[in-house]
Design a protein that fits this description.
The protein contains two helices and four strands, in the order ααββββ. By secondary structure, it is an alpha+beta fold. 9% of the residues are buried.
Length: 120
Amino acid sequence: MTRRQRGWTLIESMIAMAIFAIALGAAGGAFGVLDGPGSVGVRADRSLAAVNVLTSAHQAALLEPMVPGRTELPSADPDIRLSRTVEVDGPNLQRLIFVASWRDGPRTRERRLVSLKVTP
């Protein structure tokens, strides 16, 4: 009668970890996570920060009264400039345009969020 083997051997575990490390390295390189400063990963982080700033400014704007025109807003991230433009679209309708911009080397990048607000 033979004894049933339980668990994995050391070799099997090492091969599984090697395969996992290769897959992780390929995925990290594809998404720019493992690159150095100024690379795709850093640009993606700045873009994500801009989206977060836009979202929080939009949430705050829905709760306060708006006057038509363009306004520079304070940003939680000092590298991101945030502006809000309010346009009247109808008797009880305002168009809110938020723009977050930042420097990316010699270029200026920006993200926009456009929303409508019903006014009483």
